[in-house]
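Bit of a strange request maybe. I'm writing a small parser for structure token strings and I need a real example to test against, not something I typed by hand. Could someone generate the tokens for this chain?
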Amino acid sequence: MVEGSQGPLTHTVIMDEEMIRRALVRIAHEIVEENRGTDNLVIVGIRTRGVPLARRLIDIIRSFEGKEVPMGIVDITLYRDDIHHTTPRPIVGETDLTIDITGKIVVLVDDVLFTGRTVRAAMDELIDFGRPSRILLAVLVDRGHRELPIRADFVGKNIPTSRDETVIVRVKEKDGLDEVCLGIE
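Reply from user aminoacidic:
Good idea to test on real output. This should exercise your parser:
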């Protein structure tokens, strides 16, 4: 049992550290293949767990391409369409997008794709910083249940879920271990 925000949570490990590593290596290769190299490419992590995943993708790409891909970070808190419903005092993290993204191919990176609302908010924020030539989406997990017409271009693992289930992504940089769990509250 893991203590969740709503009480006890029973969970099953769906991806361990090695499965996550393999998924990220595959995604990194797919990104480079899709873009025919790394020229004009920018990788942007969505806070919170999309940021360490984006850094890992950049490290993997550097290991086989020998080139550094620029990275940015977006915090979508103020761009959420439910900001007034979630908390009276939202905690806003830092957005670090000092790279000019106009005309660039931007790969947004997040841990889980669910309703699509986080990705929509991230795209809204990106557009405030410039006009990319293309925006692609890379996610570690796609769990379905879209509310918006958004799909990932690069997916580590598709995990069909019910709305009662919770997907928990843990990364070493934030949580001390790498795993993806499926839980039922």
